[in-house]
Amino acid sequence: MGALSNIRVLDLSRILAGPWASQMLGDLGADVIKIENPEGGDDTRHWGPPYMASEGGGTTEESAYFMCTNRNKRSLCVDMKTAEGQARLRGMAQDCDVLIENFKVGGAARYGLDYASLSALNPRLVYCSITGFGQTGPLATRPGYDFLVQAMGGLMSVTGVEDGEPGAGPQKVGVALTDIMTGLYAVIGIQAALAERERSGLGQHVDLALLDVTAATLANQATNYLVGGLNPTRLGNAHPNIVPYQSFVARDGHLIVAVGNDGQFRRYCEVIGAPELAEDERFLSNRDRVKHREQLVPLLQARMLERDKAEWIALLEAAGVPAGPINTVADVFAEPQIQARGMQVTVPHALNPALQLVGNPIKLSRTPVQYRRAPPLLGQHGDDFDS
User: Fold this and answer.
1) Of the residues 42, 97, 179, 212, which is catalytic?
2) For residue 316, what is the enclosing H or E element?
């Protein structure tokens, strides 16, 4: 029995942010009913290649993208453009605890599936809306996409090589991080509303906006501006508030050194054969090192070229200085620590009994995450709801 095995979720969302939220709820035990358009289903079913291999080694029409965010769900095809489909969904909403949707603002109301309509039928319903810009404000009616919002929300302004260096310019993050973070915030909001429902007996509307989430997750970069008046810029792989906390080039490639305090800096200087740098008044404290970053980093970089990256990592780890390689995705899933933590799992699929998926990082001692269902085929569970 999962932690949320008493919860039923009606998932009207598609693409990534909403399905990420519903997958997380499903991993935690909720019964998630994924509603899909009979004509093709979730758009991401077609976002390939790559596609999942079949048991016999051929290629299926099930995209890897869809697989990443739709396990532990039942797929039901409903044409919500029809009166019959709308009535069916309103009936289902009366028996659900949570509804997740990512229509444009006002879109659900056209089908009678908005919060006001459904909460009148089921006052206990926790209704979560995910949009680009939220239900209110001057941009509310605009469509929003992860890439667009990474730009508008400031994330791209602090991601990429700093000005004046080769390859300079703003960059998006290598995954749709705004969508992912919005999905996670949605789960937090949903669970908070469910917990409050235990006291009041009433559900509520959870309003999530990609732009809000992007601004919120700027974290220290946002407060560097709000508190310190500093408008952050791109620093490549360096940190705006800690030095040295960045990538360095060793004799055979790149590695990361993440010095978090003055004691680690002294040990780092000893390891690289430059203990005098830790005594230099320009570099005594982190405040000093941030101020004199441009003088310090070239001195450190010159030393880092003297050994291979594996040598440096071993020496620094032995000295208690955080350091590590820059892994590829293939390297990550070959990492013994990742394997030991169950971050690669086998989930039997209708077309492939050995489907490999990324595991859930939440480890609960009494009600652990369970992988009950592989990402469904389109409409695979229609028979479950025909009675």
Assistant:
1) 179
2) helix 309-318
